[in-house]
């Protein structure tokens, strides 16, 4: 069984949303599926998507997720239990002032990776769906504070202008936790060739995203093979050492059919490893893509 490092899954928000009805959801619901799939390390992402989000909303969710991880039988911030996790934030739209102190607070509460925005436009940044503009002064302060505490800067949702600003400002290699390539499918969330080149040349990592809407518009081609074509595309130019995975499963939310065929949930991710082998990838390349590349990038951040 190949082990996996998943750079993106909105599990933090999922368990927070079920806090009253299913307070043990992390262990009772998520763990068996992750165990079946072969997850070694996963991001527990808290997703904040709209302008109404307050800093207090972010604090409440991050505190809840910390509490649940600490009391979990299976998950820990290190390898003391079965699955290692780190908290990540998707969209820091609750930061409207005092960015530096807030980033420090998040870091102290085990957040090790964050994107400035989701698809929205907020006080820090602008999502790729919402336009194209520079980072705000508060966004720049955020990136600098993230560098200061050593929190990975995720560019997966930001617009191109933000992307190049972050690349220029950040003193650490940037990360696209869950993004595909525009060269194969011109979706606003996918990365252009110059963006891919920029990440690769600066030692960053790209997490491929097997959510079918970002693989191809043609519904009949939303398959595992079509997703592997995206990995092939990056591999042809840059090899496999900076390719990773950010699955972004949604079967546990509202859409059980959001993934490419064959990857219905995290329980089925060995199908990807097996298909990569069938497609001619070496065992070492498969292990790199599924685990070691993300691990190499993130391990410097995962200090507690
Ligand atoms: Zn996302």
From TrEMBL:
Give one Pfam family: Peptidase_M19
Protein name, UniProt field = Membrane dipeptidase
Q: Any idea which GO molecular function terms this record carries?
A: dipeptidase activity
For the keyword Hydrolase, the answer is yes
UniProt cross-references to PROSITE patterns, sorted A to Z = RENAL_DIPEPTIDASE_2
Tell whether Hydrolase is among the UniProt keywords: yes
Name the SUPFAM superfamilies for this protein: Metallo-dependent hydrolases (SSF51556)
EC supergroup of this enzyme: hydrolase
């Amino acid at each position: 069984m190949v082990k996996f490092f998943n750079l993106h899954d909105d599990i933090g928000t999922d368990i927070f949303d079920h806090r009253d009805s299913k307070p043990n959801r992390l262990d009772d619901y998520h763990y068996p599926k992750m165990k079946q799939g072969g997850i070694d390390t996963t991001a527990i992402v808290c997703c904040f998507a709209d302008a109404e989000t307050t800093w207090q909303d972010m604090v409440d969710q991050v505190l809840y997720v910390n509490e649940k991880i600490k009391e979990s039988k299976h998950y820990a911030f290190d390898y003391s239990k079965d699955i290692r996790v780190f908290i990540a934030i998707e969209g820091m739209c609750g930061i409207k002032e005092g960015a530096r102190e807030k980033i420090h607070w998040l870091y102290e509460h085990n957040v090790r990776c964050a994107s400035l925005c989701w698809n929205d436009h907020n006080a820090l940044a602008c999502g790729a769906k919402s336009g194209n503009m520079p980072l705000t002064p508060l966004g720049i302060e955020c990136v600098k504070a993230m560098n200061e505490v050593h929190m990975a800067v995720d560019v997966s949702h930001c617009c191109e202008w933000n992307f190049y600003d972050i690349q220029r400002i950040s003193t650490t290699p940037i990360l696209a936790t869950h993004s595909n390539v525009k060269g194969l499918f011109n979706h606003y969330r996918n990365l252009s060739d110059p963006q891919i080149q920029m990440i690769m040349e600066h030692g960053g990592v790209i997490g491929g995203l097997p959510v079918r809407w970002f693989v191809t518009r043609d519904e009949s081609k939303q398959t595992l093979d079509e997703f592997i074509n995206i990995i092939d595309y990056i591999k042809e130019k840059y090899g496999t050492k900076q390719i990773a995975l950010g699955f972004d499963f949604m079967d546990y939310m509202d859409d059980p059919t959001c993934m490419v065929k064959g990857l219905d949930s995290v329980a089925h991710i060995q199908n990807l490893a097996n298909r990569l082998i069938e497609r001619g990838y070496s065992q070492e390349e498969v292990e790199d893509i599924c685990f070691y590349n993300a691990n190499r990038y993130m391990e410097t951040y995962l200090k507690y």
